[in-house]
Write a structure and sequence with these properties.
By secondary structure, the chain is an alpha/beta fold. Helix content is 36%, strand content 18%.
Amino acid sequence: MSRIEAFAALPEETRAAKMSLAERAALLPRAQRRALIGELSRDEKLLLLSEWAGEARPGQLAPDGDWRIWMIMAGRGFGKTRAGSEWVLGLARAPGLRIELVGPNEDEARAVMVEGPAGILACAREVRPKWEPSNLRLIWPNGTMAFVHSGANPEGLRGPECDYAWCDEAAKWPRGQATWNNLMFVLRSGRLPRVLVTTTPRPTPLIRRLAARPGVVMTRGRTEEAALLSQSVVDELFLDFGGTRFGRQELDGELIDDVEGSLWPRDLIERCRASLPLPELRRVAVGVDPPASAEGTCGIVVCALAADGTGLVLADASVAGRRPEGWARTVAATAEAWGADRVVAEGNQGGAMVASVLKGADIGLPVRIVHASAGKAARAEPVAALFEGGRAKFAGGFPELEDELAGLQAGGGYEGPGRSPDRADAMVWAMTELMLGKRRAEPRIRPL
């Protein structure tokens, strides 16, 4: 084992799983680091400082094994393009290969994959290929060639067989599935033809199929892992978009899909983000969906009725794995923190017990125990209509609550996380209390 390889074998406490080899070396105490580097040969020092193997984070390096499809589905700035360029350059050391480069369109493929700051030309170190823009091809001195193609033109991939392919931003291909199908027919040269897909996740039919396909090696990553982005930029991005569907997709690299017949489609959730500053609040209620067991989740969601008549989701304070006195204390603390004037709790799992537990937590405000006579989805439909009509909004991002809401289906189904949408149910109880409950009769003077 070379000394460079020894760096990779350092104990877990001296390296981070998502750091490059050079970054891991930097973690060593100064004396140990200087001694270790002092033992390196000139070639090994150059390898550590300049070779991609020393600079790359583990998620940017090709996985081991006889895989056919490697998919890097990660947030912006993760280093997907650099990983693709370096992968192609590593392959191009072998003579006589044919490599296909497929982007959303020819202009974008050229600007990003070939000529961009993390493109093939910028990353070429030892041997720089000749770029022929008029022919949209790269030619290496050893005869290996790479050809640029458009994801909008599947017919462009009818032709000679190829050895490898790099597909960039496949989620943006205008004719994704048709382009992929033709690529698979030409990707047939050599013992093990391979394809790398680098993309920001979007729930297109092609990306959904690839993500669910057996045998696909998946690498995921987040924007905050980007080595070249300043921390202030990352912080600003997460401040603006953290928790939203757009942020979870573009920053966290999550593939977020819609459930068929969802009462809260993802686009609806995004349209219902409240703008700041929030209007004056007239009432605040805490919805509670008690767990059926000590291991379950107690849904605790804070909602408000604004002075302009809009319903607002303010906070998700749900907790899991708590005994009754534990989640009751959380309800009490949440109600106090938000100045709630009522707690609405479902009592189907023992209404008297729920009321007793909440009163024992010394909440000091009215507790209303409600009993569900209809299924969760049926109760949620009138509340979903409030969001559809623009009368209810989310005052922030609430990923776990939103995932449950997106899983509630018209007609009674649920295809979200967990066995039960506890957070969603708590929100429904609070919104129903504030916006759909019986209006209190206004006092009137009756003439004598």
